[in-house]
Design a protein that fits this description.
The chain is of the alpha+beta class. The chain is built from 15 helices and 51 strands. The strands form twelve sheets. Strands 39-40-41-42-43-44-45-46 form an eight-stranded parallel beta barrel, surrounded by five helices. A five-stranded antiparallel sheet has the order 5-8-13-10-11, with no helix packed on it.
């Protein structure tokens, strides 16, 4: 409902409800605004002091994430960045501009429902300004809107500040909720229509954080689980399909509590899901992250070790059930083990139960304590402080073997000697990183008398490595005679006795082969050894020119920016008509790109779309999507004839309502462990029938809705259907899909294609597979590279892309994620992958494998923290999206034209003639190298 705000003599009057116009949800891009605001230093310091009192409940409080989590209320908004060059940005930080305001109540709002509780007092401090045709001062107001079902919406004035053009002012106030509304929205409003509202930052903190409660639960240090240590016996605890008993000891006194006097046992278990449980309904809230910690062990049935899992069962008001895996630990019958993990509820549940499960039937689960608390926010990372990184300097001692085998030693009972005749040039991927380089020596290490695959040359390098630096690995390798087939050769690292993959190559002839890989160390090791291994026992191994050096990513980025300018931009000529040349000549033209046409997508799940903050970031920052599980066969038909398309249907509806294109992942999955048991047990004829029904059901239901399909996922790593139904089945799957939905592009999709880590999916193997499918008539339309990668190095990724590019098929990164415990390093990894893809002409789309913490397949890979804060990796993604938008301005020339070069995509143009202002939109298509011509009638 629209509200009217009357301002008279600076008095705040009652607000009436009227019909509310459609609210603009889209985040506008950076634009020029007039009247610089200054004097920010003291205001920002006050903000910092305010935030010290407690955690800021405002998400994206300083607009470093654009308008993420903020919504313009019936108006428009955009963010001016600190480095934009705009005069208002001289304060050194981003700020939001709320413009096109037709009413004084229109402004910027954020839903804070899940972050406030009744009985607590909240302090508000905001840095605000105004811009526009204004004489004197105008009031900016902070307001809280409270909505309760079945009753009138209420508004509470929090604070006001008198603001003039060109100056930031601090707005302060406080509010308390006597009861908990269904919805609480904080917003800023007030200036007269036509005046832009500027907002630099907003901080809202609880004045007494230790007393902050969420419903009946306390979200601070107090426990969500009642009686967590069983001090009150088994009160609040029950068995989930089994019995629960209390013990002070077991096993003839050998098992005693780790802490306290007693522990609980889930016994008489007949199923793996049986265990101990507690109903925590009403004590957890949606959109808050919780941490569960349990001390567990197992007993009985001659089981000495088993997986114990903490799981959340959630039921929604409409009856939908969901099982959320919190964490697991390998428990034993010898000692207590700690299980620890986090979870978050996206929707509003009607019932929530937490329980332990996992061991086989007949084995007891013992629990000494089970605690669930509101998870503390991890402190933000700091950029790694790397002194003298020595980019490009080889850390291997005596790499050219000029001093014999000095610095090397044999791993195992093999023999090392030096031979001659190896290549004198660096392997290509190392050459791309290092540039001009002195020739190699032509000497190599010859390894003979190998009796185990792991035997080979080794060297200790622990004292030469620096934490958080990305190292590239490169070498020439060859094998001797006697091999019965191709051999896998691996450059490996032993980091405190843990194997780290430095790159692999399959070697099957008497030629020298390149190995290229990478690694990074993020925890201080006590010892690191590099060694080369792999061929079968009795096969000689030759290694030449081993290089391990830190990579200069910034130097590579400069090169990629130049490449991007060439392939992702196009010259454009705007031709104006409708005015005589004398009237049009000299008219001012301002061009702004609103969207790059390059596809940037993400993985989503059904549970994610219950979280409006997730949806907000999703629809603002991505134009493609893929479903994590909801389209896979094991999800849509978990038991024969028991279909579930409801989840996928709802996700399709969301994407289509926001004009987001979709990839269908996947029709089949070739890896046997992902195939339902009922399918595995089918006869050959019944399996062939089921395969036909699957593709028919799926593609008929969604015909024309999915632009892509991954037809048979990971065929380089599995062969279930091929083993059961013969080689032709793979090509036939493509043919059947194409007949059912000819509009969809059909992809192969696999992992470790781009990183040099897996010989099964090396680019040559992928090319061989695709050509084989095409020879059988399979309409392969695209190449999917999943992109689950660690410590990426640009030239290695680029080499794979260039090899695959010879097929002439579009390449997509379909499941991209990177992982690092340090957000800045994670951001660097992500930038490597995005820039390499965007600068390569064969790549036509990038889809991330998620972005929200606790909903990723890998830890430390998220861009947005669980409760909605954008981390450094997320900020880097948004910065790159902004970098890849073009803007131009100038004047129409004597020929009635305006020329510029810009990224492919959608643009808006504003032309100011002598008599009027004209607004138009146009699209710069990818096309060829010729200039793109646009006719515009004035």
């Amino acid at each position: 409902m629209r509200r009217l705000l009357a301002l008279c003599c600076n008095r705040f009057k009652h607000k009436q409800n009227q019909n509310h116009p459609q609210r603009s949800e889209g985040a506008m891009e950076n634009q020029n605004t007039e009247n610089a605001a200054d004097g920010t230093k003291n205001v920002n310091q006050d903000m910092v002091n305010s935030s010290i009192r407690g955690t800021n409940i405002i998400v994206n409080h300083d607009f470093c994430g654009g308008l993420h989590s903020w919504h313009p209320n019936c108006c428009e908004g955009y963010v001016v960045s600190a480095d934009s060059g705009h005069p208002q940005a001289n304060s050194g930080g981003n700020y939001a501009v709320v413009t096109n305001r037709k009413e004084c109540w229109q402004g910027l709002e954020q839903d804070i429902t899940g972050r406030v509780t009744p009985g607590s007092t909240y302090l508000v401090s905001a840095s605000v300004g105004v811009s526009g045709p204004l004489e004197g001062c105008v009031d900016v107001l902070a307001t809280v809107k409270m909505e309760c079902q079945g009753s009138e919406t209420k508004y509470s004035l929090v604070g006001r500040s008198s603001v003039s053009n060109g100056k930031w002012e601090k707005l302060e106030g406080k509010f308390t909720l006597s009861t908990m509304p269904d919805k609480v929205v904080f917003y800023l409003e007030g200036p007269s229509p036509g005046i832009d509202l500027l907002i630099q930052s907003v901080v809202i903190t609880c004045s007494s954080p230790k007393e902050r409660r969420h419903g009946n639960a306390i979200a601070g240090d107090e426990d969500i689980v009642l009686n967590p240590n069983f001090e009150d016996g088994l009160t609040n605890w029950t068995g989930r399909g089994c019995q629960v008993v209390l013990h002070d000891s077991m096993g003839d006194g050998k098992i005693v509590p780790q802490s306290g006097k007693v522990f609980a046992a889930a016994t008489e278990r007949t199923q793996s899901w049986n265990g101990i449980q507690q109903d925590i309904t009403g004590r957890v809230q949606r959109k808050l992250a919780y941490e569960a910690t349990a001390v567990v062990r197992i007993f009985g049935n001659n089981v000495t070790s088993s997986d114990v899992r903490a799981t959340l069962w959630v039921q929604s008001p409409n009856g939908r059930e969901q099982y959320i895996s919190i964490s697991n630990v390998q428990a034993t019958d010898k000692d207590w083990a700690q299980l620890k993990g986090k979870f978050l509820l996206n929707g509003s549940p009607s019932k929530v139960v937490v329980y332990l499960e996992g061991p086989p039937a007949g084995t007891d689960i013992l629990v000494n304590s089970f605690v669930v608390k509101h998870a503390e926010k991890a402190p933000p990372s700091s950029p790694p402080d790397i002194v003298n990184p020595a980019f490009g300097v080889n850390i291997i001692e005596n790499s050219n073997l000029s001093n014999g085998t000095n610095g090397w030693f044999p791993l195992g009972n093999c023999t090392l000697s030096v031979g001659t005749g190896s290549p004198h040039i660096l392997p290509p991927m190392a050459r791309d990183s290092l540039g001009a380089h002195e020739p190699l020596s032509g000497r190599y290490i010859l390894v003979t008398k190998r009796t185990q695959t792991w035997m080979g040359p080794a060297q200790m390098i622990g004292n030469k490595l620096k934490l958080f630096l990305t190292y590239q690995v490169s070498a020439w390798v060859q094998i001797g005679s006697g091999a019965t087939g191709p051999q896998n050769v691996n450059i490996a690292l032993s980091v405190d006795n843990q194997w780290v993959n430095g790159g692999q190559a399959e070697v099957g002839d008497n030629r020298w082969h390149e190995i290229g890989g990478s690694f990074r160390i993020e925890k201080q090791p006590s010892k690191v050894m590099v060694y080369i291994q792999g061929p079968a026992s009795g096969v000689d191994l030759m290694v030449a020119g081993l290089q391990i050096f830190p990579v200069d990513r910034q130097a590579r980025f400069r090169y990629l920016k130049r490449q991007t300018e060439k392939i992702r931009k196009r010259d454009a000529i705007l031709k104006f008509s409708g005015l005589d040349s004398s009237s049009a000549f000299g008219s001012y033209v301002k061009i702004k790109q609103s969207q790059n046409s390059f596809p940037f997508g993400t993985c989503i799940s059904r549970t994610n779309i219950d979280n409006e903050d997730f949806v907000d970031f999703f629809v603002k920052n991505f134009n493609w999507s893929v479903f994590g599980n909801e389209l896979k066969w094991y999800w849509t038909e978990p038991q024969k004839g028991n279909f579930n398309y409801k989840d996928a249907d709802e996700m399709v509806d969301l994407c289509m309502s926001h004009n987001i294109d979709m990839r269908g992942h996947c029709i089949y999955w070739e890896v046997v462990d992902t195939v339902q048991q009922w399918i595995r047990s089918l006869s050959q004829n019944d399996l062939a029938t089921a395969v036909q029904h699957r593709v028919t059901d799926l593609l008929t239901r969604y015909k024309g809705k999915f632009k892509h399909y991954d037809v048979n996922n990971e065929m380089l790593h599995g062969s279930f259907y091929q083993d059961k139904l013969g080689k032709d089945i793979r090509a036939n799957m493509f043919k059947m899909a194409n007949q059912l939905d000819p509009s969809a592009l059909l992809f192969v999709n696999d992992y470790h294609v781009e990183d040099g880590c897996d010989t099964r999916s090396a680019p040559e193997k992928y090319i061989e597979q695709i050509l084989d499918l095409q020879q059988q008539g399979a309409p392969v339309g695209g190449i999917g590279i999943q992109g689950h990668i660690d410590s990426p190095v640009g030239p290695i990724v680029c080499s794979a892309l260039d090899q695959l590019g010879i097929l002439g098929l579009p390449i997509w990164f379909t499941e991209l994620d990177v992982s690092s415990s340090n957000e800045y390093v994670r951001a660097d990894d992500l930038e490597v992958m995005l820039r390499e893809a965007f600068a390569n002409p064969s790549v036509e789309g990038i889809v991330l494998w998620g972005f929200w913490e606790l909903f990723m397949s890998r830890e430390n890979s998220h861009l947005v923290n669980a409760e909605g804060d954008i981390n450094e990796a997320g900020k880097r993604y948004l910065q790159l999206k902004q970098e890849w938008l073009s803007h131009a301005h100038g004047h129409i020339d004597e020929q009635g034209q305006f020329k510029f070069r810009g990224f492919h995509g959608t643009y808006s143009i504003e032309i100011a003639t002598a008599t009027k202002k004209v607004l138009k939109t146009f699209v710069v298509d990818k096309g060829d190298d010729s200039p793109f011509e646009v006719s515009i009638t004035l």
